[in-house]
From TrEMBL:
Region (Disordered): 1-28, 693-718
Record's protein name: ATP-dependent DNA helicase
Transmembrane segments: none
Enzyme class: isomerase
Residues at which ATP binds: 58-65
InterPro entries, A to Z: ATP-dep_DNA_helicase_PcrA, DExx_box_DNA_helicase_dom_sf, DNA_helicase_UvrD-like_C, DNA_helicase_UvrD/REP, P-loop_NTPase, UvrD-like_ATP-bd
Residue stretches making up the UvrD-like helicase ATP-binding domain: 37-321
Sorted UniProt keywords: ATP-binding, DNA-binding, Helicase, Hydrolase, Isomerase, Nucleotide-binding
Entry EC no(s): 5.6.2.4
Lineage: Bacteria, Bacillati, Actinomycetota, Actinomycetes, Micromonosporales
Length: 802
DNA sequence: GCTCACCTATTTTTT
DNA sequence: ATAGGTGAGC
């Protein structure tokens, strides 16, 4: 573990300080004036302001990254701060890497001595260094959300909780929230009211006990345990306070309570020690992580939390055209109780925002692909300049299908992540079991993978033995033969498994991670099973495992390049903390010419010349689950704000009138966010009018012209003027689009319904056929749509059997 | 104890 | 659509 980090020595002083001071010039040659040249007034203030605490309210695209990196460089260059005294907290590992690089570009290699990382990585670093104070083994496992859910499943089963009332996922979420609030199990149990809360309290208590026994920490524990460590061991806290004289936090609006407390601990003064200089940067309008405990109050109340705070607002946007900013401002200004802030740009109006209403999500994707194609032909845009955003990961599929079909190169960031694939998780579970014999969740995951004749019964017998004799699950496996009621076959299987782990553990003491991984995959028979399989999916799994081996090899090379030893634990830590979205190098030449697909959440902090914001439908974006709740709706609106402000030059907004959600198509109304845009900002290339025309209920194709100067209602319906050219285009698209074929399919399929069939009506949604009468063209069906029952002539009704 | 076939609920968003 | 859970049959 030590290999990865420069740790503070036991007295808390960074070991690097002394030698560094001796061997390097204290004062770099960089001229502080040159550093701030080219910054505008507020930016320059934000960089040079000496004193604490400092809140930088940075609007989207206001050069926040530049200000932060320059501020750090300024500390080092002009204010004689040692890099070892700086800790900067970023939101993602990728942001940390970039920040470190940029600072290094300004002040040179000594920037390496700063701590720049996410909250989670910083806490792991501290906990590894202080593991004995924190009551941890040095090789604790880190559980991600999926591991937590699995453990919670075991816990819920053990407590005999009804899975309907208390699904493991829900329990895990509630427990996570409690941890973010720094509420421990006892406190919560004491105040728990009603059976629901008491069940959560029980689950929380047992869950924590099981984590402890497994020498594992989940993501929330990493923060919470560090806070508790500082609170219960003041001398440990003091060491870090003495060390870190400058604390900088990016994306402060996305901090949760535990992270807030951690910062407080870090920057509070002690006897004879001034508080550290704190600088936080954020934008309340870009807070989009409340669902995982982030609380916007931290930034709104900064001035109350920290006396004498200075606030600097960065309101000039350097990223987007005024048109795009106007749209963003219009949307976000609908959030009540928001501190007013108005971004402005001097880049001129730029291109109009382009809107498009497609009939289906396929047509929407077709249009996006076609438009990207047109842009790359007609302008100097490259595919790499384009990003396509959507609300949920599932929406990426249809874009992928279309992009593959038309040969448009793309990459999906996030989504079904590499590290979440079953085979990768299995392999990592082996590695964790090797490193940490007590990691019950990992051991139980792989003890019968591949099959060794160890079933649920045997697993239960071992578990019973472990709780009866109060030994760990791993220790109980070694004495499997003593387990009451276990079959001899299972005992043999467990024996093989234990021996396998032993051998691998021994290997891991000398071999680098990639060799241990390869040995694991071959010796366990995991790889052989996949290779022999006839399931075509399994070939892909083999490739993923090869990829994982390469990741391990790269890790080893990188660590050894720093003259440190690559350990298995270190590799696992990297894998646990580094999301693979972080690993996509933005300047990788392979990705230069590639369209980027990602969720709006992933898009935070990025920018693209051309942005497609898709799926703008009530129920999709804003998401269905947010519709009933004003707070959540505000968060969705902030998400829209984030999405819009990612665009530099061109912004496209699109939606689909019908969209297949989990199999069945559904009719979606326009997103309210579209209605919130000033209509002169958007030129609609195609409107819903084009859609209704083919079904016979609407007016002229795309020619609803003039549109609603009269206002909201019409625009809300998606009607807006289209140029004749746009109308012609719309008609052409309507005709070639996959939609029209669907329309004719609908008409042919309609007469075939029978009583009891489930059907979907384009307007009324899902229904069930109650009765059918008549034959051929005159056939009618009585359909129950839930809120109403009606007789429809099948030949004319846009009904589809599902 | 394992495998297959069927059933169901499930989808926000992520360090 | 699809993963995960349940139950029957081997």
């Amino acid at each position: 573990m030590r290999a990865l980090f420069e740790l503070p020595s036991p007295d808390g002083q960074p070991a690097v300080l002394a030698s560094d001071a001796d061997s390097r010039p204290r004062r770099p040659q960089l001229d502080p004036e040159a550093l701030v040249a080219g910054l505008n007034g507020p930016q320059r203030d934000a960089v040079t302001h000496a004193g604490s605490p400092l809140l930088i309210v940075a609007g989207a695209g206001s050069g926040k990254t530049r200000v932060l990196t320059h501020r750090i460089a300024y500390l080092l260059a002009a204010r004689d701060v040692h890099p070892g005294q700086v800790i900067a907290i970023t939101f993602t590992n990728k942001a940390a890497g970039e920040m470190k690089e940029r600072v290094a570009a300004l002040v040179g290699n000594r920037a390496r001595l700063m701590w720049v990382s996410t909250f989670h990585s910083a806490c792991v670093r501290i906990l590894r260094a202080e593991h004995d104070h924190a009551g941890l083994k040095s090789t604790f496992s880190i559980y991600d959300a999926d591991d937590s859910r699995r453990l919670m499943q075991l816990v819920a089963r053990e407590l005999d909780l009804d899975p309907k009332r208390h699904p493991a996922r829900g329990l895990a979420t509630q427990v996570s929230n409690l941890k973010n609030e720094l509420v421990d199990p006892e406190t919560f149990a004491a105040r728990a009211k009603g059976p629901m809360e008491r069940a959560v309290a029980e689950a929380y208590t047992l869950y924590q006990r099981r984590l402890k026994e497994a020498h594992a920490l989940d993501f929330d524990d990493l923060i919470m345990t560090t806070v508790h460590l500082f609170q219960s061991h003041p001398h440990v806290a003091e060491n870090y306070r003495r060390r870190f004289r400058h604390v900088l936090v990016d994306e402060y609006q996305d901090t949760n309570h535990a992270q807030y407390q951690l910062i407080k601990e870090l920057v509070s003064g002690t006897e004879g020690l001034e508080p550290a200089e704190l600088c936080v940067v954020g934008d309340a309008d870009q807070s989009i992580y409340a669902f995982r405990g982030a609380t916007i109050r931290n930034i709104l109340e900064f001035e109350r939390d920290y006396k004498d705070a200075r606030t600097i607002m960065l309101e000039q946007n350097y990223r987007s055209t005024q048109t795009i900013l106007n749209a963003a401002n219009a949307v976000i200004s609908r959030n009540p109780s928001r501190k007013p802030k108005r971004l402005w740009s001097d880049q001129g109006a730029g291109e109009s925002i382009v809107g498009y209403v497609a009939d289906t999500e396929h047509a929407e994707a077709d249009w996006v692909a076609r438009e990207i194609d047109r842009l790359t032909d007609d302008t100097d845009a490259r595919p790499g300049d384009v990003a396509v955003f959507y609300r949920t990961n599932a929406q990426s599929r249809v874009f992928e299908e279309v992009f593959i079909r038309v040969g448009l190169p793309y990459k999906v960031v996030g989504g079904v992540r590499f590290y979440e694939r079953r085979e990768v998780r299995d392999a990592l579970a082996y590695l964790r079991a090797i490193v940490n014999d007590d990691d019950t969740v990992s051991i139980r995951r792989i003890m019968n993978t591949p099959r060794r004749g160890i079933g649920d019964r045997a697993e239960g017998a071992v578990e019973a033995l472990s709780s009866r004799d109060r030994i760990s699950f791993g220790a109980a496996m070694r004495r499997a033969a003593d387990a009451p009621g276990i079959s001899s076959r299972a005992v043999n299987g467990i024996g093989d498994f234990v021996a396998l782990l032993e051998g691998l553990r021994e290997l891991s003491e000398t071999a680098p991670p990639e060799e241990v991984l390869e040995a694991t995959l071959t010796r366990s028979g995991y790889l052989a099973e996949l290779e022999e399989s006839t399931d075509p999916q399994d070939a892909g799994r083999v490739e993923n495992l090869q990829e994982l081996v390469s990741v391990a090899r790269e890790f080893t090379e990188r660590v050894e390049g720093n003259d440190e030893q690559a350990t298995l634990a270190g590799f696992l830590e990297q894998v646990a903390l580094v999301a693979d979205a972080d690993q996509i190098p933005s300047d990788d030449p392979d990705h230069q010419g590639v369209v980027t697909l990602m969720t709006l959440h992933t898009a935070k902090g990025l920018e693209f010349p051309i942005v497609f914001l898709t799926g703008l439908e009530d129920g999709v974006f804003p998401h269905m689950r947010a519709l009933g709740d004003n707070n959540e709706l505000e968060e969705e609106r902030r998400l829209a704000y984030v999405g819009i402000t990612r665009a530099r030059q061109r912004l496209y907004l699109s939606r689909a009138v019908t969209r297949s959600a989990w199999g069945a198509p559904s009719y979606n109304p326009t997103s309210r966010f579209i209605a919130e845009l000033p209509e002169e900002l958007v030129r609609w290339e195609r409107t819903e009018g084009s859609y209704t025309s083919w079904s016979g209920t609407g007016g002229g194709v795309g020619n609803r012209g003039g549109s609603g100067a009269s206002g909201g209602a019409a625009r809300g319906g998606g009607f807006s003027g289209g140029t004749p050219k746009a109308a012609a285009l719309a008609q052409r698209l309507g005709i070639d689009g996959s939609k029209l074929s669907t329309a004719s399919e609908l008409r042919q399929a309609a007469p075939k319904v029978a009583v009891g069939d489930r059907v979907n009506h384009q307007r009324y949604g899902l229904g069930r056929v109650l009765a059918v009468e008549g034959q051929g063209p005159s056939a009618r069906a009585q359909i129950d749509f839930g809120d109403q029952t009606m007789w429809l002539v099948l030949r004319h009704a846009p009904v589809e059997k599902i």
